[in-house]
Amino acid sequence: MMDVTQIQTLLGLASGAVGLTGQAAATVEAVKKAFAGGPKSDDGEAQQLLNSLATQLTSVNMMNVQLSMALKDISAAIEDEDRFEKRLARYKLIDGGMGEMIYTLRDDRIDGDPSHYICPICLEKERQFHFVTGGKGESGKHCQGCRHYFSFGKATYSPR
């Protein structure tokens, strides 16, 4: 899941890169002015400006690499969130018959999968899809992830 600090970091990097690029551009202008004087120009000042420019450009390059990495991380987080939401859309939250909520496949989203249940606790805490399993005809089942025990009423547990 993408968090606000990732976005703030990205914005900080972008802002810093813009600032350093502005400094580098100003240094380029100063170098042009130093050389505009012709043969009388101050070589020491020009060398100082060129060194400053090289440092600024290196900083901009490093910041752009960080910015690129942050963008890749955010892009991956958005893709993960999209996959999670698409997978979650296949399920609906139901009452298991004994007052406990549990996820089951939507009738219109079965896509050839057998009827099954997913643990809402693991979805909420870990964003993980763990099956709730047990023997046929049993009135209760356990989550394969957190091992929570779910009680089922007879009406809800009947197979489709």
Model description:
A 6-stranded antiparallel sheet has the order 1-2-3-4-5-6. The protein contains 4 helices and 6 strands, in the order ααβββαβββα. The two termini are 34 Å apart. It has helices at 4-36, 43-88, 120-126, 154-157, and strands at 91-95, 101-105, 117-118, 131-133, 140-143, 149-151. It is 56% helix and 14% strand. Mean pLDDT is 81; it is low at 155-160. With 160 residues, it is an alpha+beta fold. The longest helix has 46 residues, at 43-88. It is rod-shaped and about 95 Å long.
What is the CA–CA distance across the termini?
34 Å
Helix proportion range: 55-70%
- The count of DSSP E runs of length 2 or more, i.e. the number of strands, is 6
Low-confidence stretches: 155-160
Rg, please?
Answer: 30 Å
Q: What structural class results from the helix and strand content?
A: alpha+beta
Work out the helix count: 4
The multimeric state of the shown protein is single chain
